[in-house]
Amino acid sequence: MNKKPLALHISGLLLSTLAPAVALGASNSTFVIEEVVVTAQKRAESSQDVPISIQAFSADAIERLGATQLLDLAKSAPSLSTGGIPGSNQTSGMRGVVDYGRNIGIDSRMGVYIDGVYQGRSSSNNQPLMGLESVEILRGPQGTLFGKNTVSGAINLNTRKASEDFTGELKAGLGNEGYMTASALLSGPLGDKVLGSIAYSTQKRDGWFNNTALGRQVGDWEQDGARGQLRFLANEKLEVILSGDFGSSDSEMPVYTRQSLPIYTTGKSLESDKVDFWGTALTANYNTDSDYILTSISAYRTNEYVLTGDEDFTAAAAAFQTQFDEKGKQFSQEFRVVSPQNDTYDWVAGLYYFDSRVSTGRNILFGAPILPAPQLSGVISIPSVNDITSYAFYVHGNYRITEQLELTAGLRFTDEEKDFDFNQVNTPNDAAGGALVLENGLGLPAATAAFLAAQSPGSLFQAFNLNYRNTYNDSNWSPTLGLNYQTSADVMYYAKYSRGYQSGGFNGDFNPYLPAIQFNSEYVDAFEIGVKSVIADGALQLNADVFVQKYADFQLFQRVPVGASSVQIVSNAGKVTSQGLEVETVWLPTDTLQLTVNATYLDATYDQFENPVFAIDPTQPANYNGNYLNNAPQLKLFASLQYIQPLGDAGSLTFDVDYSYQDESFSNAPNNVTFELIPDYDLWNGRITFNPASDRWSVSAWVKNIGDSEYIINHSQASITNINRVIWGAPRLIGMEFKLNLGQ
Known about the structure:
- The protein is mainly beta.
- The chain has one domain (22-743): Maltoporin, Chain A.
- Helix content is 4%, strand content 57%.
- It is built from 3 helices and 48 strands.
- Helix 2 (431-442) crosses helix 3.
């Protein structure tokens, strides 16, 4: 294997990647297997030397896959799974442990980091993929170095650093369904010691849903994003980076459609999903005379979303509408020391502080025909606030026992406090009229009728006015221990144990069950054995691992009955096991042909989960032991073929074809095949790119879902109305893109 020297830049964030470890040659005419440099252990090092199950994507790889948002990578990274509602309420996770921050009292198990800064809310996890050097997907709990609720996995987005020479690119594209996109990246010197960069992207698409109630197409979508950076090279030892980013998306895609309707057909009132976020960070890196790197990262981020849904599935504007909303702001500070890397050992240690406030005013509007009488209509809202403060320190190191054998160990201590102020408020439209209906129609005493009417419409679903304040405190030690054996320069075996932790919290949702509003912390013990290798004279890269993850006090959304309807609460389900096999291969039969196969076989099930409905309805199962976890398909597969056809002095054509398969899964713990089964599906995508010999520009044509397959990405039963509902995947999409390279 032809290894290139690793130049450890002062920032420790130098990345040169093309996942999985494959790049085009300098002339865009050949493929070569190259070294991939990652920062998973807070230092720049080859991914083949890091004893972690990791998959990395460079900017070029992301472009060839046609990915524009982070979660687009789920098809080519089989251990990364998604579900739920695309947009602000998208669920995501790894190795079958998939969830989201449904309300302000809940944290996502998967951590997304932007240049080392934790992005605290799942509503803005799906970051736009522009201005990036690479994306690293770290699978499984990362308890030592990424301790803020990463019991499922962590994703690092590494932005391109402002360059010392002017460089850049411009892109523009068009496609069917009204698709338009444009982006720009500019980077270069602004002065003797100041470098700058800016990236911007915008894209939009018309909707393809036929709304029979409105008599027109609906589902328009657009997204904008930007990243900027100022890089100050104060001297040979000190570097200071001021960075900022923002993103926004606006969608009118139907949240769900009735399963009984034809594909891409809806009859509801107009729905919308809007997400906005921005952040800034100040990073200082200082290289001491003895080659220690001291780093300080101070960051501030905000996020906001509003999701408006039509839950009655009719054109009635005031029957059953929901509005989920959230505003969040956070500040984090990290101090880190990275030791030099010598023949015997290396280590990293740090201190971490995180403070955030998340608020909501979400509400549900109830009216006819959902309620028995229009006088009982009104709004339930939950104006609430959750304040989180977290402190942590960590140390992680590697000790080389011999030239071949290395011991890895780490420890993180986390102390977290959550202050929760929850309010549930009913605002009836006609309290006096509702009291008369209850008194005369149901024969209730006048005082009782007046009380229930004053708390309608929630009183009909046992969601009375509530005021709840409480504080949750918890602390945890999260260790990591591993042993790595290097049989040769190109083959490494590793075994690893890690313990992950996610603090408990509060169910800040519409709540008829006040005693169940608090839930406990979750823990995971993870075991992993893997191999990383480059064999066959450097033509074949083969990485594989086997993992077992044991969860205790597993935090879970549960549907529980309220009269003839149901609501979702959060509790601790008991015990869960996620185990499986992950394989990644890249083979270069020739220097113009590349074959890639990535696969994950998964067995993620509930070991112990008592069914809360059984006490109310004995005809239901007493437990869900042995059932599959939500959005946890047993098999996910990605395969791609890339071929370069040289055209002599004219340049070259690159052909990309990829195939992805996802096994069937379930959207909820009961695994009900009638309204929770998500059938298996497979998709074909293609791309053709022409690169002239000068490499100054390129033009591409692409197709997603070549076969125009009809497939479902979510399937569930609506709360309150119990309507069988689905979310359809996208139809065949085609387009073209032009790219102009600037500078060197």
